[in-house]
């Protein structure tokens, strides 16, 4: 569970490399020191409609049905 939390840390600079995570899972590396309270992730809103081009991709019901 600790490795999963470490890999999903909101601050990408504090996430391990896949090599580090595997070493811990194989008991070849030390467990990470996680904070007792994880920071709250911050999400930035998308730009307003004026900055999005009209050629952006869209998904239709037909394309959804084809993926099933």
Number of helices: 3
Oligomer: single chain
The helix content, as a percent range, equals 25-40%
Query: Overall mean pLDDT score?
Result: 76
SS-derived structural category:
mainly alpha
> What gap, in angstroms, lies between the N and C termini?
32 Å
Q: Which overall shape is indicated by the principal axes computed on the Cα atoms?
A: elongated
Low-confidence stretches: 62-66
- What is the tally of beta strands? 0
- How would you characterize the largest beta sheet? none
**SSE topology string:** HHH
Strand proportion, as a percent range, falls in under 5%
Radius of gyration: 19 Å
Describe how the helices and strands are arranged.
Layout: H1 2-7, H2 18-25, H3 61-67
What structural keywords apply?
68 residues, mainly alpha
Description:
The two termini are 32 Å apart. The relative contact order is 0.14. Helices cover 31% and strands 0% of the residues. It is mainly α. It has helices at 2-7, 18-25, 61-67. It contains 3 helices and no strands.
């Amino acid at each position: 569970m600790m490795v999963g939390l470490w890999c999903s840390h909101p601050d990408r600079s504090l996430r391990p490399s896949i090599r580090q995570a595997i070493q811990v899972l194989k008991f070849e590396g030390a467990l990470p020191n996680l904070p007792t309270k994880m920071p709250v992730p911050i999400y930035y809103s998308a730009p307003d409609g004026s900055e999005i081009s009209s050629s952006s991709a869209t998904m239709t019901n037909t394309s959804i049905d084809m993926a099933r």
